[in-house]
Amino acid sequence: MTDKLPETLDPPTHRLGMLRFAGPGMIVAGSIVGSGELIATTKTGAEAGFLLLWLILLGCVVKVFAQVEFGRYALSSGKTTLDALSEVPGPRIVGRGNWLVWFWFAMWFASIGQLGGIVGGVGQSLAISVPLTSQGTLYNEAEDARISQRLMRVRSIENAQEGAETAHEAAQAEALSAEYAEQYGATQVGNEAKLNPPPDAKIWAAIVAIITCGLLVVGRYRMIQSLSITLVTGFTLLTIYNLFKLQAQPDWSVKSTEFLSGLRFSLPPKSADVSPLVTALATFGIIGVGAAELIVYPYWCLEKGYGRFTGPREDTPQWHARAKGWMKVLRLDAWGSMIVYTFSTMVFYLLGAATLHRADLNPSKDHMVRTLAAMFHPVFGNWASILFLFGAFAVLYSTYFVANASHARTFSDAIRVMGFIRSDEATQRRWVRGLSGLFPMLCLVLYLLYPNPVHLVLLSGLMQGLMLPMLGGAALYFRYRRSIVGLEPGLLWDHCLWLSVFAMYVTGIWTVYSNLFE
């Protein structure tokens, strides 16, 4: 699983050398941008407008301090995250882990559901691009017309011709929907008839899951890192360009007053059908470095070699020098990836607020990917769907691929920590390989049983939000009970870490309150 490099290695001393050994953070960013930014963040923007931008940015930045503490302990001890969590005081079953490890299992199951939502999104992207049935083709035409008609409502009506075009779009959308409903049926939801979806997305999701199984079984660190960086970078650049060009269109541009209003503390109102705050809290748990990423980040650091290069702990000047040097690399990796995903998160949120919120479009169920594609229509017109679907496939599949690889590693480690399998490396390798083939299919099954990608993603966000306070407490435990003399951070870092943990506790408490009492 690891690259073939020396057992111990002196750390690089200049920035370019450090960048050569960066990578774990970008792998994590590859999983963040898909479900967090593309789905959860844009949905929050669609529901709340610009008002919760402050919460989205806070969610990205504040958790990186805890992330580095988890990485610091992994580097200095060589222990995996679940090994480390099992050391935290609290209820435990002897030889079977403690309360944190067992709660991780509950969060893990929800995150598998999240990946079910992701593979569903990939299936939707492919079904829109390459429908497999005649039903799928007609469904695409009807839904495209509906989305186009919604977007035209937002445009400024300057003359009668534009008004006539809008009326024509509405009539065309209604005719196509009626034709589809007559052939394949529709379900009445409130005052609106929802067309019964075709099977194309599920078929494509199954194909993608099977291919992913094969790729992960033979995969290695370098392939995972390269694929993740390539896919995420391409779509992020396209999205930034889209937001930039949107500023040239008065009906869709982000006004400075709107942007500044999003940086002030304020909460959006709750409507009968939508609770933007609940969506935002679920988003807070999943964007940036969520609970799942906090746990998996040290695994990628160890697989990259940071712990191995540092070597087993020794009370020698040479070991301390190596540990300090590799900690600099780890911090550069964590902060560099934070800049990438924070900026991309802001872009996705602003796009959701500027387009979907104004057009009264909310991503959900089988309409998720198609609705998200509407963000590209004002700039790219008829090319919007093609460009977005390529990007959505790239980013969502990157998340699906990376997260399944991560789950195979964390789950095999969890059952080792709880004493269900042997601790030798050969056993670990076999389990990682086997689970890499199993988990993509498990995600597919969950999607087929509950084909609502947005709900699956947000459920995982809620579970991660609940676990954030626990991980915040663990980060403080590692800092004050497991720090090595000479490797402790400074006073300013400690203050920021406490702020990070405080934000995690507020999120967890607020998440419970919002879901139980509102």
From TrEMBL:
Keywords on record: Membrane, Transmembrane, Transmembrane helix
Molecular function GO labels: cadmium ion transmembrane transporter activity; manganese ion transmembrane transporter activity
Membrane topology according to the record: Multi-pass membrane protein
One Pfam assignment: Nramp
Main location: membrane
Family matches, as InterPro entries: NRAMP_fam
This protein's name: Manganese transport protein MntH
Organism: Rosistilla carotiformis
